[in-house]
Design brief:
Blueprint (H helix, E strand, L loop, with lengths): L22 H4 L3 H21 L15 E6 L2 E6 L20 H11 L5 E4 L6
Antiparallel strand pairs: 1-2, 1-3
Length: about 120
């Protein structure tokens, strides 16, 4: 059985690793943050070696998202992650597209009555 670990954070500015961009993370002394980073890297190595780590992605800032809603008889898109708070993440698909236009074309096809679809690029760093 596979699980998706979704990491939610309120960072200003947006960046990765999150510990370097959150107020609480920046309050931790640099040597402790470095030790925590080393422990996390070791965890990822162990999970990779055991075959338990399938993949991981850092998402770009929420402002880069595109949201699709079903309105009337077709999906309508808006900039940003504007899903209502009552709506919860229900699934995750990874698309590998040559262009943002192609990704938006495909994301719109996932939108249906009662659904909100968010398209967010992977953050490259």
């Amino acid at each position: 059985m596979k699980y998706v670990v979704l990491i939610h954070s309120n960072m200003q500015p947006w960046g990765h690793p999150t510990i370097d961009f959150t107020e609480v993370g920046r309050a931790i002394p640099a040597d402790e943050r470095a030790a925590m980073g080393k422990e996390f890297d070791e965890l990822l190595s162990e999970l990779s070696a055991s075959g338990e780590l399938v993949t991981g992605l850092a998402l770009d800032a929420p402002s880069t998202a595109r949201t699709y809603r079903w309105e009337g008889k077709r999906p309508v898109s808006t900039d940003g992650p504007y899903a209502e708070s009552k709506e919860q993440l229900a699934g995750f698909f990874v698309l590998d597209c040559a262009t943002r236009d192609r990704a938006e074309e495909l994301a719109a096809k996932f939108a249906g009555p009662g659904d909100v679809i968010e398209l967010r690029p992977e953050m490259e760093f």
